[in-house]
Amino acid sequence: MTDTIRAGVIGFGLAGRIFHAAVIHATPGLELAAIVQRTGDEAAKAYPQVKICRSIEELLADESIRLIAVGTPSSSHFEVAEQCLRADRDVVIDKPFALTSDDAAQLIRLARERKRLLTAYQNRRWDGDFKTVEKMLVSGLLGRLVTFESHFDRFRPEPRLRGWRENGGPGGGTLFDLGSHLIDQALTLFGNPEKIFASVRIDRDNGVVDDVFDITLFYKRLTAYLRASTLTKAPGARFTLHGTQGSFVKFGLDPQEDQLKGGILFDAPGFGQEPEEAWGKLYMEGAAPERVETEVGDYRGIYANVRDALLGKAKLVVAPEQAWRTTRLIELARESSSEGRVLPVDLSNKP
């Protein structure tokens, strides 16, 4: 008997191709057994040894496939995940986990009823820069943290109106796309905030869906600022941390996404590593700024954890209740932006 878990990926766009198929294929103990691509032959060319299905039903008919990754457009996440859970499969949903907290809660209850694993693909917990921030906070070098800033800024002045993320349809926009990650990272580091204030808006001339957000999370003695923009040409810090004993500033984005898009795979020398000039800097009183080596990122970590959770060897790192919490914060951010006021964060009704 083997412990290898056969997995299928639904969707072969950016998410399915780069963040699921490639990562599953590279994770020991998982077998990429099938991919659903309704039309086209890109999946067959990329993975000639893998079964290509033209429908979800065709995939689910193969009862040897236990784990399903949902990499479809965001508007279909709930429907597809529900179908897979009802077929008694374990499910990883790409972000956003769901478009509403009610839908997220419904999926969680269904997974419990069916006794299936359910999680959100929060791969950016395995970014090297985020792992470095975690290590910095654990070290205590900064003293008591008072300010945390997390930015994911890009310069894309022209909307890609042909793509579902920017054409105005449900599930599109920067808040769902990047807010899902930045909120999850903040909640992972600091837990539930007391209050939230947000501005979610369209900055681009031809934009039809939100392309920038500024979110402020208020804790008892800490304020966290989260921002993503499509109109930031000048490079800015990815993370900025200020504490009672010093500061840490980190520029640049984790290299894994660009490496995978460029065909550089996990076993390539230097994968996930940053050059020294990209390392963050630690600023302490009475000392010269010191470069801090960036931890090596590895997106295989999330699927390795899913594998181990399925085998009863580890606790699931990204619990579905955490995905519900992130979804609820996205709803509160939109509400705060619409009403122009600070809102209390009450998460007592979690599923």
TrEMBL record:
Keywords: Oxidoreductase
Ranges in a coiled coil: none
Gfo/Idh/MocA-like oxidoreductase N-terminal domain sequence ranges: 5-120
Pfam families hit by this protein: GFO_IDH_MocA (PF01408), GFO_IDH_MocA_C (PF02894)
Keyword Oxidoreductase: yes
Residue ranges occupied by any Gfo/Idh/MocA-like oxidoreductase C-terminal domain in the UniProt entry: 135-345
Keyword Oxidoreductase part of the UniProt annotation: yes
Entry superkingdom: Bacteria
A molecular function (GO) term: oxidoreductase activity
Recorded family membership: Belongs to the Gfo/Idh/MocA family.
Protein name per the record: Gfo/Idh/MocA family oxidoreductase
Taxonomy of the source species: Bacteria, Pseudomonadati, Acidobacteriota, Terriglobia, Terriglobales
